[in-house]
Amino acid sequence: MLGGQKVVVVMPGLNVAATLERTVGAIPPGIVDEVILVDDGSTDETVAVASKLGIGCVSHGRNLGYGAAQKTGYREALALGADVAVLLHPDFQYDPKLVPPIASMVVHGGYDVVLAARVLVGGALAGGMPPWKFAANRLLTWAENALIGASFSEYHTGYRAYSRRALQALPLAGNRDDYAFDSEVLAQAVALGLRVGEISCPAHYFDGMQTITFGPGVRYGLGCLKVAGRSAAARAGLAPSILGGPGLEAWTEGRWVLRGGE
Fold first, then answer.
1. Angle CA(59)–CA(62)–CA(68) in degrees, nearest 5?
2. pLDDT above 60: residue 49
């Protein structure tokens, strides 16, 4: 509990058996009430490691995509009574020690969405982000801000927190199932007028970590621009609202549940 509110960490992952225990073990004690791993069709020992750790695990029978894994995770978090859901990658790319301050910005700061931005205070390149990724991050963020009508430091961080109100208001079930899900959520948060805050987060790139390669990265960038373009067209009255999709209660595809310790 944090300020009397329940905090649930959601970890979408694929083949993260080698890093899952390290990530879970680094979460500071006393704040997080539940940890949910969403196994998106892993073929390694990810589910077995989750069971050994005693954390909740929801497993897709096949790989549905990063966005789909988040949908499942947030739905489970709401079912568990979460007041705050913190998105944390189980590959140790992001420092779990920041979970308390990120969640605190929702609980004590009144934010609906919190982004842990790697580009604040110049930490991205220092943390090992490849130069081409940094350049793409900056260019995409500039374009998305212009089209969506926002001023975020970064759209592409995978370290975030959401209030219960935000998860219930956002039409997440109808969103993309791929990596562009994250940008779509931010466009919708802006359209809904949700309060979005940012906190600085160090980048942490290392050998063997999971990271998007150049080809998929190009597809991801085009997907993000498509989302931003839809948002701009909707703002101009030239296209339907980006808020027309269903909520999380509509997301049921491809799920089976294995609770920790079973």
1. 70
2. yes
Q: Which two tokens stand for residue 151?
A: 């001023």
Q: Which of 155, 122, 140, 130 is nearest to 212 (CA)?
A: 130
Task: Report the alpha-carbon distance of residue 189 to residue 99 in Å, rounded.
Answer: 21
- How many angstroms separate the CA atoms of 112 and 258, rounded? 29
Q: Is the dihedral of CA 104, 178, 243, 37 positive or negative?
A: negative
Gap between the Cα atoms of 252 and 64, Å rounded = 12
Per-residue confidence (pLDDT) for residue 127, from 0 to 100:
66
Kindly report, residue by residue over 97-130, the tens digit of the pLDDT.
999 999 999 999 999 999 998 877 666 666 667 7
Quote the mean pLDDT of the chain.
Answer: 90
Taking residues 28-34, report their average pLDDT: 96
What does the pLDDT read at residue 66? 95
Closest CA relative to residue 63, chosen from 42, 47, 41, 45? 41
Measured between alpha carbons, how far is 182 from 66 in angstroms, rounded to an integer?
9
Domains in the chain (CATH in brackets) are: 7-129+153-211 (3.90.550.10)
